Amino acid sequence: MNDLAIAAHQVRYEQKAYWRNPMAAVFTFAFPIIFLIVVGSSAGAAKVPGYTLRYDQYVVVAMLTFGLIAACYTNLAMAICTRRETGVLKRMRGTPIAIGSYMGGLIGSVLIVVALLTVLVVGIGMAFYHLHFPYHPGAVLLTLLVGIVTFSALGLAVTILVPNADAAPAIVNGIYFPVVFISGVFYPLAQGSVLARVADYFPIFHMIRALVSAFEGGPGSGLRAGDLLVMLAWAAGGLWVTARRFRWEPRRPK
Amino acid sequence: MPDDVAISVRGLTKSYGSFHALAGIDLDVRRGEVLAVLGPNGAGKTTAVEILEGYRTRDAGEVTVLGADPARRARSLRARVGIVLQECAVDPYLTVTEALTQRAYLYESPRAVADVVSLVGLDEKAGARVKVLSGGQQRRLDLGLALIGNPELIFLDEPTTGFDPSARREAWDVVRDLCAEGRTVVLTTHYMDEAQALADTVVVLAGGRIVASGTPDTLGGRDHGMTTVRFALPDSAGVGDLPLPAGVDVAVRGGFVEFAVLEPTEVLHALTRWALDRGESLAGLSVVRPSLEDVYLALTGDPANIAAPGEQGR
Fold first, then answer.
1. Burial B93-106 (b: 16+ CB within 10 A, else e)
2. In chain A, what residues touch B81 (CB-CB under 8 Å)?
3. Which CATH architecture has domain B226-288?
4. Which residues of B touch A95 (CB under 8 A)?
5. Angle between helices A3-20 and B96-104 (to 10 degrees)
6. In B31-112, at which residue ranges do the beta strands (DSSP E only) sit?
7. DSSP H helical segments within A160-219, as ranges?
8. Distance CA B20, CA B9 (A)
9. Mean pLDDT value across residues A167-182
10. Other Cβ atoms closer than 10 A to A248
């Protein structure tokens, strides 16, 4: 049996399960879109200092990032923690499926979700906030792809810290929310500010900056290789600890 | 290894820190056989079975499952083994048919999904999502998932816990059918009647050792044990009137006579003739060998058994 065909088959069923679970869809779609409408319509049409995008257009890009992180990092981590706790992962290891096919099914499902989210959020931006179609669509795609890899890897890695499914929301969100708030998701960071210097260490700020650059018109490819490298470093770190410490079974007192 | 051996274990040990979960296990399971693993909690059942399933590694000893070492976790082996764990491990948002279809795709020659749905008695729930199934129905789906890949060897960890009596009987029938098809079944259970009904061989684990093994009828010398005879004492007779051999310890409780003998044939013959001659009957007559549960409790309750070296598995 072809591992790739199995992964594709897994994607189908991951998608079925995904859309029937209201929580995941709410966090990934409803939140970014509500924020987009509320924050975007109050942000005004002034340009963000240092960018050619307006505030409301910046919010579109920021919310795309926000939704992508919900789809990759949050949803993936929650799904893994729940499945680990309920024995789904253990059970899966008892079947002949390759780990790559299983994880491929999960990530493939995330890809579909992010694609849909991108179309929706960018569509709203273009329809209501005069967002121009990305000047560098290739750079947008590549940045989104790096974002998916990075935040999926971090979603897998964070499950190592979660002792049981009850603790999952607190730990997963407890790590993520502070970083979201300091990374310029809800308002652009003033360049050189203290916050920007702190956010510089984390991947979310770099994701937004790279995406903004790909959306903006300007000379060059729109690619911000430096930002993508910072993200990939986080991805590599996440994958490294995942490979070493990932648990398929819940922690149980002996 | 001969072709008719499904599982072979020699000198298996496993420790967690200073705790010896398995202190040297020897075991053979023939193909087409049902092995029941009994033992109190903490006896090492789960550790032993999970080593056979490939979930845990061993410290020492030889383990062969369908000709392969399960610790290597080869896909070719996993494809031939079906596992039912204690938790119902299925995505709650898929339907019964979807869960089985998804799983079937992982195997080279799976059974037909509709057949498996019927086999585990979920026809009426085929289109229902897993999360709306009752606990017993989820367990049956679990069994179906273990069978979908057409496995040669099936591990069932307490497969009927939470089943109502009729569902248990149906599950037993499924297990019997699996054996009739030549598949091998290893089951752990706390129900003695389940072991009695299904197992060809029973092993009793206690303190990380096999303290007894044998068929359900001979386990722990059950076939050589004392047989208890019990009946209502006829109104017209006293205990002293009964034709019992000398030295038998007779108790009378609530109008019932009860005694235990090694070989009941002769004494029963004498008793029934005595009753017929007097025109009486032996109301409520029962002749009972020690139950599997009696033997089990004696085996696992005896500290000497736990300290003593385990008997060899067959």
1. bbbbbbbbbbbbbb
2. 94
3. 2-Layer Sandwich (3.30)
4. 78, 103, 106-107, 149
5. 160
6. 34-38, 60-65, 81-84
7. 168-182, 194-199, 203-215
8. 17
9. 91
10. 16
Q: So what's the ipTM on this one?
A: 0.85
Contact list in B for residue A84 (CB cut-off 8 A) is none
Pairing of strands B227-232, B286-288: antiparallel
Cα Rg of chain A (Å, integer): 18
* E-only strand ranges, B91-208: 153-157, 184-188, 201-206
- Report B:35-64 residues touching A (Cβ under 8 A): 53-55
**Would you say A171 and A161 are in contact if contact means Cβ atoms under 8 Å apart?**
yes
DSSP string of B231-250, one letter each residue: EEPPTT--GGGS---TT---
State residue B42's pLDDT score: 81
Give the span between the Cα atoms of B104 and A122, in whole angstroms.
39
For domain B5-80+152-221+294-307, the question of CATH label 3.40.50.300 is answered with yes
Query: The dihedral of CA B97, B100, B105, B110: what is its sign?
Result: negative
**In this predicted structure, what is the pLDDT of residue B310?**
36
CB contact under 8 A, B85 and A95: no
- pLDDT band of B2, cuts 50, 70, 90: low
Q: How far is B272 from B280, CA to CA, in rounded Å?
A: 9
Closest to B158 (Cα-Cα) out of B147, B181, B142, B179: B142
Asked if the C-beta of B87 comes within 8 angstroms of chain A's C-beta atoms, the answer is: yes
Residue span(s) of chain B under CATH 3.30.70.260 come to 226-288
Residues contacting B186, CB < 8 A, separation 6+: B7, B29, B34, B35, B37, B49, B52, B153, B154, B155, B156
> Where in chain B do CATH 3.40.50.300 domains reside?
5-80+152-221+294-307
pLDDT in tens, A37-48: 888 888 777 888
Q: Are B201 and B29 in contact, with CB atoms under 8 Å apart? A: yes
Identify the DSSP state of B94.
S
Which residue in this structure is represented by tokens 């010398």? B221
pLDDT tier at A233 (50, 70, 90 boundaries)? very high
Q: Give residue B228's identity as a one-letter amino acid code.
A: T
Instruction: Report how far residue B16's alpha carbon sits from residue A76's, in angstroms, rounded to the nearest whole number.
Output: 32
State the alpha helices, DSSP H only, in A26-95: 31-43, 55-69, 75-86, 88-93
Q: Find out whether B190 and B119 touch, Cβ atoms under 8 Å.
A: no
Chain B residues in contact with A90 (beta carbon < 8 A): 55, 85, 89
Question: Looking at the complex, does the CB of residue A251 fall below 8 Å from at least one CB of chain B?
Answer: no
